[in-house]
Amino acid sequence: MEAKATIRYAKISPRKLRFLTDAVKAMKPTTALDRLGLSQKRSAKVLWKAIKSAVDNGKTVYNMLPEKMEFKTLAIDEGVFLKRYRAGSRGTGKPYKRRTSHITVVLFQKEGKKVQEVKSQEAETKMVEAKAEKVTATKKPVAKKIIKKS
Prior knowledge:
By secondary structure, the chain is α+β, with helices and mostly antiparallel strands.
């Protein structure tokens, strides 16, 4: 199972986003979210949103456990760019490009149990514990005789 999230036309340069992706790819998504949340880079906020979306998609759609997820791909691609002009010398306009990015995050879960299986096991153990409590509650306590030695 794979959980996927994309952000298209993010108004930040791909070069700035790629600066963080190399470090993030080596981490698990949950630790990456923690680290990116504390980062002061502007690109960290955009990358955090993409990874958070992929983790949430995996939890809700595929019943994946966030602790077991790993990155399959974390791609930063160039989007369209907007041509703009800045004032130059002698009254001329100097062109520059406002770059955009496309972020694609694909997560997968290695082996492990699904959330439903874990919940069913928890419910099963609760039922066994409840039965054990009923059995101990129905047994009458045996009165012990106290014999005094004289």
